[in-house]
Amino acid sequence: MTPTPLRVAVLISGRGSNLQALIAARRSGELAIELILVASNRPAAEGLRHAEAAGIPTLVLDPAAWPDRAAYDAELFARIAAAAPDLIVLAGFMRVLDAAALAPWAGRIINIHPSLLPKYPGLHTHKRALAAGDALHGASVHFVTAELDGGPVLARTEIAIEPGDTPDSLAQRLLLREHVLLCQCVQWLAQRRAELRADGVYFDGRLLAQSLQV
């Protein structure tokens, strides 16, 4: 029996290139998902236009209208919950989320981060990798917890850092790999092959000793 398509909500803050990758994979039939909502904290986020063009409902909540982060996140996740997603994907959502708002979604919310976690949580990851003299850089998809970019990693992708690389050139080369990585991880979740349990990330029913490579 074919599983019911996974209902996915995506949170963005900017151009939405990873969102576009999910839309394209869904349109081509590569991903058996239903994109039910795209939400943003920025009304001008370019990714909202991509969602609208694809016929996906959108939601914009400006944090300035709420007294603090906890109140904003409570409202945001209440509205997301009303859409009844199976999975929430943070795809360039540039806010730290409140632990109380995250708690009901444990194991059902993932984030794509442009570093080989646990290296370089937070911002400016390409610049930090170059400054450290790393030979490899990459991106990670992890389950979201209250710790910034600290949740269990499902999968990573790697690229070599080349002589003469700048933060911009590194970011541009990595972006295509990010798209592949995110779509693959969402596909595994849609196929019910990957899940987060109390003792770690499981894939095909087995506890992963280390993250998968894409």
UniProtKB/TrEMBL annotation:
Site feature Raises pKa of active site His, where: 149
Positions that bind (6R)-10-formyltetrahydrofolate: 69, 111
EC top class named in words: transferase
Lineage: superkingdom: Bacteria
Active site per the UniProt annotation: 113
Ranges for domain Formyl transferase N-terminal: 7-184
Pathway: Purine metabolism; IMP biosynthesis via de novo pathway; N(2)-formyl-N(1)-(5-phospho-D-ribosyl)glycinamide from N(1)-(5-phospho-D-ribosyl)glycinamide (10-formyl THF route): step 1/1
GO terms of molecular function: phosphoribosylglycinamide formyltransferase activity
Sequence positions that bind N(1)-(5-phospho-beta-D-ribosyl)glycinamide: 16-18
Catalytic activity, EC: 2.1.2.2
Signal peptide span: none
Catalytic activity annotation: N(1)-(5-phospho-beta-D-ribosyl)glycinamide + (6R)-10-formyltetrahydrofolate = N(2)-formyl-N(1)-(5-phospho-beta-D-ribosyl)glycinamide + (6S)-5,6,7,8-tetrahydrofolate + H(+)
UniProt-listed InterPro entries: Formyl_transf_N, Formyl_transf_N_sf, GART, GART_AS
PROSITE patterns: GART (PS00373)
Function: Catalyzes the transfer of a formyl group from 10-formyltetrahydrofolate to 5-phospho-ribosyl-glycinamide (GAR), producing 5-phospho-ribosyl-N-formylglycinamide (FGAR) and tetrahydrofolate.
Family, as annotated: Belongs to the GART family.
Protein name: Phosphoribosylglycinamide formyltransferase
UniProt organism field: Tahibacter harae
